[in-house]
Amino acid sequence: MQQRAFLKIGVAHFSEVSMLRKSSFLLIMSILMLAVPTAYAAELKKTAVCSECNMKMNETGKRFSASLPNVPGMGPSSYCDIGCAVISRNRECATRQMTFDSNAVVYDHATEEAIPVEKAFFVLRSDAKTPMGYGIVAFQDKAQAEKFAAEHGKGKVIRWFELVDEKLK
Q1: pLDDT at 90 over 60
Q2: What are phi and psi of 91, to 5 degrees?
Q3: Cα torsion angle, 39, 41, 46, 49, sign
Q4: I need a surface site. Which of 10, 55, 89, 132 has the fewest CB within 10 A?
Q5: 3-state SS assignment for residue 57
C-alpha cells in the first residue's frame, strides 16, 4: 500500500515536472519564433548590397539609389547609384529591359520620394558626389532638376530613355 502511494506521488510529481518542461519549452520556442524573423529582417536591411557593384548600402545614400521590386523572372534588386542601375539594365535583353523600365524606381534627390524611372527627370554629369561617382541625380519635377543642373556644374536634364543611351564612365 505504501508502495502504491509512493508510486502515485512519484507519477504525479513526474507529470508536474513534465508539464513544467513542456511549458518552458513552448515559451522559449515562442520567443525564438518572434525574435528570429525580426533579427533576420534587421540583418538583411543592415547588410543590403548593390546588385551591380556589391557596395554596401545604407539609408543615407537613398537619394542616389534605384531599386527594382520583386518582379517575375527578375527578382528584387537594389542599386547604390543610378549609374549602377543603368549599367545593369543595359546588360539585359530587350524584353527584360522593358520589364526593368516599367518597374524600377529612383528617389527624388530633394524629398527621397520614390519615382518610377519613366517619370523621373535626371541630371547627368553634375558635380554631385554619388556613391560610385556617376554624378546622376533624379527629380520628380523638371524645374527642380534644371535648377539643380544650373547650380551643380554643367549637368544636363534628360529622361530615362535618354539616360540609358548615354555612355557612362
Answers
A1: yes
A2: -80, -10
A3: positive
A4: 10
A5: coil
